[in-house]
Design a protein that fits this description.
Oligomer: single chain
Strand content: 15-25%
Number of helices: 9
Order of helices and strands: HEHEEHHEHEHEHEEHH
Shape: globular
Number of strands: 8
Amino acid sequence: ITPLSLINSYSIADEIIISSEYHREEMLFNSNLNITANKVTYWLPEGCYELKSETNEKSNLDTIGVYSPGQWIRNQQNKSFGRSHLQAKEENVLTQLNHYVKQNNIQLIIFLHPWEIVNEQTFEQTKQYYSHFVDRENLHFNLSKKKNIESSLHVFLGVGVFSSILLERLSLGLPCFIAEDLSWEFPLKNSKLHNISFNAFDTSLANKIESIKNLSTTQFFCKFDLADYIKQ
């Protein structure tokens, strides 16, 4: 479900399987991709098929989930893969959300990357790291043994700088907002993801959250013209 431009820019095949509506938009609008196929088929992301029947209409913004790509620990271990700049964005988003949930009595849940909980010592470092940006009374981690996408079915809104789980949420009809990243033109200017993208360094995230406070999940997808992203 990771954008094609990051993993597979050149492909020739009889049939190509894609797992996100954004893949289709990339094939249409990204001139740097060179993908040739006689047939393009859509599959739901791995692990989402059995969850489709469990997604229900929601109409109460009571929880916000933050989905971490673990950029701080990637940078610490010199495994940033050219994305070290994302850490500053993540930290600013956390600070904004901490302020927002305090003002609006909303629960904030952080869904950690596996690298952040690889062992007890690392998890202690992780808790210390997040405490710099989120007040302890607002600091809640998802510690379920289930996959993050399964654990997040009850979370009304997902937010992140970049995490593939955000695209999985859209496939299941679950609202989210995604930080833009101009360093690699994400999202593409013609993509409908632009409707839910935000600048991590201004107040656009809070403004977007305010605009959906009274919407149901169905109304969210109508407002931002994202019906094509929901897959059956």
